[in-house]
Amino acid sequence: MLTLHTKLAADDGRAAVAQLVLPYDQREKCRLRAVLSNGEDVAVFTVRGTVLRDGERMTGPEGQVVQIVAAREPTYLVRCLDAHTLLRCAFHLGNRHTQAQVGDGFLRIRKDVVLKEMLEGLQATVTEESAPFEPEAGAYGGGHGHHDGHGQHLLAPVPLRQKIHRPGDTPGSA
């Protein structure tokens, strides 16, 4: 069985020997057993919180490269007549902690009849489709961020620790 545990840089240059086609809920697991496009069994081990994104490539101790492919799955495509209505839909989805893919003029969510009715009530056009699902990583789930000077990629600047003043503190003590 092939083992995968390391994401490769986009410019690595090595060709993939197979594809690993997975729906989103499988691409966010840190331990997974699956079957590659060539029929070979694979074990995937990632750090908790890692999401495998469409097009990424992975390798393991064997040195073989596998490309990750987002599988088509049941989703709803959400469109609105104007940006304000689309923003309202995104707000209400976020308020329900619903994962959503944000695109140019659309949202995509997993198929959920209750959410569909809510969105239609907000005047959105909701179309059932089968599509790869790539939701936003979320505020704490990776993505683009700031460097903290120690190789970490922070999503937002972390405020400096503030001194807490207690009644017994003397001026100038730190």
Topology overview:
Layout: E1 2-4, E2 6-7, E3 18-22, H1 24-27, E4 31-35, E5 41-45, E6 57-59, E7 66-70, E8 72-79, H2 83-95, E9 101-103, E10 106-110, H3 113-121, E11 125-132, E12 146-147, E13 153-154
Parallel strand pairs: 1-5, 3-7
Antiparallel strand pairs: 2-6, 4-5, 6-7, 8-10, 8-11, 9-10, 12-13
Q: How would you describe this structure to a colleague?
A:
This is Urease accessory protein UreE. Belongs to the UreE family. Pfam families: UreE_C, UreE_N. The protein has 174 residues and is an alpha+beta fold. The protein has 2 domains: 69 residues, HSP40/DNAj peptide-binding domain; 60 residues, Alpha-Beta Plaits (2-Layer Sandwich). It contains 3 helices and 13 strands; from the N terminus they run E-E-E-H-E-E-E-E-E-H-E-E-H-E-E-E. A 4-stranded mixed sheet has the order 2-6-7-3. A 4-stranded antiparallel sheet has the order 9-10-8-11. Strand 4 and strand 5 form a beta hairpin. About 14% of the residues have low confidence.
